[in-house]
Amino acid sequence: IQWYGAAQSYVCSGMVIAVNRVLTAAHCRGNNMLADGAPAVVLQLNEFYDLALLAAETHKPSISLRDTPVHRFETLTAIGYAWGWTQLSVLEERALLISVAVGPKNAVGVIVQNGYIGGMSGGPLVDAKGRLVGIVQQTNTGIGYGVGTQLIRAFLLGSE
Fold first, then answer.
1. Engineering a disulfide at 56: which of 35, 48, 75, 132 sits with its beta carbon 3.0 to 4.6 angstroms away?
2. What whole-number distance in Å separates Cα of residue 120 and Cα of residue 27?
3. Is 144 exposed, middle or buried (0-12, 13-18, 19+ CB in 10 A)?
């Protein structure tokens, strides 16, 4: 997902979750958003979960959500457009803490080892079979955070 601010461009990542529907982090929303070059508009937003559902014409296959929870120390993969590169960045992660909120303004999520790179926000965190287990939302030195599929599913169903 790419959008343009008043004076400069900002880059975030996202994933196709259904026909013409893209999931990303809520803090990634902006003006004149584009998803794969097509205009994108916000359909649903939850700032506490840091999730946004966008409508955008896209022809990529959708990602599937995993039904079972992440296990501590499970190997995961974060995918996104780090630093605004046009090529995908792929980071190997390990789930350190499950069902933890990193602050009072954050929903309960998954904390992973290694952290993420700027621009990967909104991108998928997947298991070894390529199923969605979380979303890239925040990073700090050596750790990353994002909500898991239970909250993503609740958000998409409108029951959050």
1. 35
2. 12
3. buried
Contact 119, 83 (CB under 8 A): yes
CA–CA separation, 41 vs 86, rounded Å? 22
- Tens of pLDDT, residue by residue, the chain (160 residues): 555 444 456 688 999 999 999 999 999 888 888 888 889 999 999 999 999 999 999 889 999 999 999 999 999 999 998 887 778 889 999 998 888 888 888 899 998 988 898 889 999 999 999 999 999 998 888 889 999 999 999 999 986 6
Q: How far apart are CA 141 and CA 74, in angstroms?
A: 20
User: From CA 108, how far away is CA 146, in angstroms rounded?
Assistant: 8
